[in-house]
Design brief:
alpha/beta, 8 helices, about 40% helix, about 15% strand
């Protein structure tokens, strides 16, 4: 059986542009539609507690859109499983109910767990499962009980990847920042092989 590569488009930057101006342009759901019409196999969003790009209502809107018009398309919601509820400081933005609550409401096909914080500009490292594995395992089971496939954001470390399987992850997403930073350097091949 051959495996097909499936492309899931992350809409965070569309939401970031929208959030930098008044109104709802560009519209995140309409951009999801454009991506799917162009052949994408899935849609990915990463709501953060500070809602700097994807917001809570975007998850809901995209989930409803996919269920209604593209039921065969996968939604992947990424985020820190330990991100608790936070109150919004801006009247125009709803409160963040916590990452697990977002998943429970929207029931995406896949949940990608990422060890990020609000102080990070973007995700810049994977989980250390030697330290966090025991804390993650019950969360993974809770999310699987909601019908979600689980992916963990991981550094390219063979031992850590073996641990990901042991605590219940179905797949991983590799952090490739060092490779991207070293692409035009003599270390490129070593970073790729790692």
């Amino acid at each position: 059986m051959s495996k097909q590569t499936a492309l899931s488009i992350n809409l965070n930057k569309i939401a970031l542009i929208r959030n930098s101006r008044d109104g709802d342009y560009p519209n995140v759901v309409e951009h999801a539609r454009h991506c799917l019409e162009a052949g994408a196999h899935g849609i990915t969003v990463h709501p953060r507690p500070d809602q700097r790009h994807i917001r809570v209502h975007d998850c809901r809107d995209i989930s409803h859109f996919l269920n209604r018009e593209y039921p065969h398309i996968e939604l992947n919601i990424e985020g820190n499983p330990f991100a608790d509820a936070t109150l919004s400081l801006r009247e125009s933005i709803e409160d963040y109910p916590g990452f697990i609550a977002i998943i429970a409401e929207n029931r995406p096909a896949q949940v990608t767990l990422v060890p990020d914080t609000n102080s990070q500009l973007t995700s810049d490292h994977g989980f250390d499962l030697r330290r966090e594995g025991d804390q993650l395992a019950p969360v993974i089971q809770q999310l699987k009980n909601l019908g979600c496939r689980i992916s963990l954001f991981m550094d390219p470390d063979a031992e850590q990847i073996r641990l990901a399987r042991q605590i219940g992850a179905d797949r991983i997403e590799l952090y490739t920042g060092p490779y991207a930073a070293g692409f035009f350097t003599p270390e490129r091949d070593a970073l790729f092989n790692r």
